[in-house]
Amino acid sequence: MPAARLSRRAVAAGIGLLPGGLAGGAGAQAPPPLIAGAADLQFALGEIAARFRAEAGQEVRLSFGSSGNIARQIEQGSPVELFLSADEAFVLRLAAGGHTRDAGALYAIGRIVLFVPPGSPIRAEDGLDGLRAALEAGRIRRFAIANPEHAPYGRAAEQALRAAGLWERLQPHLVLGENVAQATQFAIAGGSQGGIAAYSLVLAPTMRGRGAFRLLPDALHEPLRQRMALTRRAGPVAERFYTYMQEPAARAIMHRYGFVLPGE
Amino acid sequence: MDWIAFRLSVALALWTLALLLPLAVWLGRVLAYRRFPGRGFVEAAVALPLVLPPTVVGFYLLTAFGAPSPLGRAWERLFGHGLAFSFEGLLLASVIVNLPFAVQPVQNAFAAVPPRVREAGAVSGMPPWRVLLAVELPLAWPGIATAAVLTFAHTLGEFGVVLMVGGAIPGETQTIAIAIYDRVQAFDERGAGIMSAALLAVSVAALGLANTLSRRVGRRTRDA
């Protein structure tokens, strides 16, 4: 690690442009730990991190993406110290490969919604029946979901649409987001008539007034069991954050963003 | 406006210039003046990043840099952290993808120096390094300036390769182009709009500078 810090300091000294925290301007301490979260966490985890900074007096860096991509990056040597996946399979795979300390802990169960932008032919309050009606009326051109191949919310969306018997008919209309946040962005951007989004994202304050949504029954898909684990690189601050995630303050924020919490 | 990402992008662009420009001046000059077997192959290799999709370049670099690769393992042993998803890895990727933007203008500029002028220098007893400094570089200067500006602007805008090998780590690999992408995904169109406008302004300024610079230098060399 000293060599890493030295090289970063060299980067900063050479140009004098890099931010002090990462450049090791302070010299002695390591850069704040990198915490990688699934895209459905980008608002909830931002709030939790802000509280953590205020209460623990420790800085953390956040990065968001699809769980599959983050898991692959950890296998490739990314400096992530704590990984909060939207799907426990990715964490368990990393644990089996020796990339995390252990199998970690379940921290939330995610829910999916049908999201509909203003002016869409889909009646949000009818849920997937509303989607079916609009589809039969030939009024769906584009419908956004996350990529089922590597985004857990995409897989849940596929399962729900299959359960409702809509998957085959929706095929020519699907647009795939790289992760659930991008799928949600596609759904609100106006180019599509709706999409399957994360409950935690549509509950965010910035989403107010951007459209309507309907929570989909969790019986339609396998539960989005979200698991987190510390990686082999984790230091004390990441460990503290991991514990913090399971304490009442963080749980209250997660609850407000629509997550079902373990033990509830 | 995400100043951390902006500063990171500028730092990446300046570092890329610092490493790439000397290499480009050397390689561009060799390609312009020397005839050697495999010259066509080297020229094609330099041009490859222009035609390959950034995801292809990114995929190969990720495979070459990743923790399981020999380079990734050696780097980890030397510096205690991986090469992929680090600033250094990003810099190395940036140098590679910018090769054509740096080498080709330099090569064209050296090739445009009239052979008579170079020969005159050599005939009057100048050693090769003085011919380079006193004759070739002043004449090839506009091409080198163009190479620098193109490399700088292209690094600020590079997206696909950074997405593949960077991992969007704030302050380390989350460049301005990636930050814009992330702002859009966070439904923050205002933030994305401000950063996009800033990037647009910097790019226009860079191209304006390149044009002014090459015109002025061109005039001076003609007068001399």
From TrEMBL, chain A:
Q: Which InterPro entries match?
A: AvModA-like_subst-bd (IPR044084), ModA (IPR005950), ModA/WtpA (IPR050682)
Keyword terms: Metal-binding, Signal
Cross-referenced SUPFAM superfamilies: Periplasmic binding protein-like II
What superkingdom does the record give? Bacteria
Q: Which CDD domains match?
A: PBP2_AvModA
The record's annotation in PANTHER family points to: MOLYBDATE-BINDING PERIPLASMIC PROTEIN (PTHR30632), TUNGSTATE_MOLYBDATE_CHROMATE-BINDING PROTEIN MODA (PTHR30632:SF14)
- Give the record's family classification: Belongs to the bacterial solute-binding protein ModA family.
Name this protein carries in UniProt: Molybdate ABC transporter substrate-binding protein
Species the sequence originates in: Caldovatus aquaticus
UniProtKB/TrEMBL annotation, chain B:
Keywords assigned by UniProt, alphabetized: Cell inner membrane, Cell membrane, Membrane, Molybdenum, Transmembrane, Transmembrane helix, Transport
Per the record, membrane topology reads:
Multi-pass membrane protein
Where does the record say this protein resides?
Answer: Cell inner membrane; Cell membrane
Gene3D superfamilies in the record: MetI-like (1.10.3720.10)
Q: State the similarity comment.
A: Belongs to the binding-protein-dependent transport system permease family. CysTW subfamily.
Task: Name the job this protein performs.
Answer: Part of the binding-protein-dependent transport system for molybdenum; probably responsible for the translocation of the substrate across the membrane.
Which PANTHER family does this UniProt record tie to the protein? MOLYBDENUM TRANSPORT SYSTEM PERMEASE (PTHR30183:SF8), MOLYBDENUM TRANSPORT SYSTEM PERMEASE PROTEIN MODB (PTHR30183)
Name-wise, this protein is Molybdenum transport system permease
This protein's encoding gene: modB
